[in-house]
Amino acid sequence: MGYYVVEGGRKIGGEFQVHGSKNAVLPLLAASILAEDEVVLENCPLIADLFVSLDILRSLGCTVKLDGRTVIIDSRRLDGTEVGEEMVSKMRSSVLYLGALLGRKKEAKLGHPGGCAIGRRPIDLHLKAFEKMGVVITEENEIFCCKAPLLLGYHIYLEYPSVGATENILLLAVKAEGTTVIHNAAREPEIVCLARFLRACGAEIYGEGTPTIMVEGVRRLHGAYFTVPFDRIEAGTFLCATAATGGEIRLLGAERQQMEGTLEVLEQMGCGLRYGQDSVFLQAPKRLLSDFTLTTGPYPAFPTDMQPMVMSLLTLARGTCMISETVFEARFQHADALCRMGANIQKQGRNAVVFGVERLHGAVVTGSDLRGGAALLIAALAAEGESRIYGSSYVERGYEKIEEALTCLGGRVRLKKGWNE
Ligand SMILES: CC(=O)N[C@H]1[C@@H](OP(=O)(O)OP(=O)(O)OC[C@H]2O[C@@H](n3ccc(=O)[nH]c3=O)[C@H](O)[C@@H]2O)O[C@H](CO)[C@@H](O)[C@@H]1O
Ligand SMILES: C=C(OP(=O)(O)O)C(=O)O
Predict the structure, then answer these.
(1) Catalytic residue among 44, 116, 193, 271
(2) Residue 79: pLDDT above 60?
(3) How far is the CA of 163 from the centre of ligand 1 (A)?
(4) Cys-Cys link to 166, which of 186, 228, 374, 388 (CB 3.0-4.6 A)?
(5) With a threshold of 0.90, does the pTM exceed it?
């Protein structure tokens, strides 16, 4: 099991070019199998989830090339309809291959998707919508077997604006006969990105970014060139690392509009923020401030994916903050590890109260999910002394060489593979 060794107490700062977005590129890779010509995706982040996605595409018969940060996918010879259990168990967004394969081959087989254990994460909303659109679903040995003799557009009302369900319905609807309307659709920037990509491939989609998305099905999608947008969560992570350590940073390639939820909180905590056309500048305050409440929610509310890293910041702020996690029911696992580093956090169900302390100290801790691991890295950078953070494979799912990036920005972070190194 890999771990990070972090020497705390050094300021993070300088300039950082934000990578392409994990949660944007993964749906695009799944969507590429709907296109019956070559798809070229530029600015791909070189993260573990991308490599799992490329393995899935190859296993389905696609030709895949990776050239620097550009991925070229040719799915003309796609012949598979089943995604192997090993790949499905590694990554949540593998569930999107259900919609994409059904759209392309009218058939798909896939197990329960894996990913970070931050709650139950059922896929009932995806499956209910599929059934309404004509998909026949049976479950055998925990594998969903889906067949779509005829895919028909439908009015789908989502009980919750699920990101994954909205994406899966889009993937199906672009190839269904007639009109699909998704009511109470997710509005995240990654939904907008997927809709724009599908449109570049010839799909007819209207209203992405609003709660109502309309899709007119088409017979065929063609290839496209597309650039993956910046990762708003990676950007937020580097802002938090800087704020926690008292530094100054300029993020290149980051856009303010998509990060408002996070930026508002950083401002409330006393950070100085300035914006360029394609950049965000943060200056940490002498002491971070708290004394407010923070509630996660679907976009444009404060994003649940930033909650762990902001919790690390709050542990060092003057004052008290109550965090309500409304999206995932088990997303406070990092709090116990933060307490081992000297934080004062009381958890109760979906709420956590963070009482700010003057300082944290280094410790040996384990991150048990992607953002929880990132939160511990931030706490360790700000702490006095050395920390070891186990569970680096979770962090590697969504951050490209974060240890190198943080070291270039003035931190001291090393990645070690294996328990005894
Ligand atoms: C790869 C990817 O893009 N992952 C993101 C995506 O995950 P993901 O697409 O899994 O998140 P959802 O928006 O679907 O989930 C939100 C909530 O809805 C529940 N739910 C969802 C679907 C369903 O059929 N039934 C159901 O009950 C989930 O258990 C969760 O409590 O959006 C989340 C919410 O912004 C982010 O934290 C993840 O980083
Ligand atoms: C929860 C996350 O990812 P996933 O949905 O891929 O598990 C995340 O990116 O924070």
Answers:
(1) 116
(2) yes
(3) 6
(4) 186
(5) yes
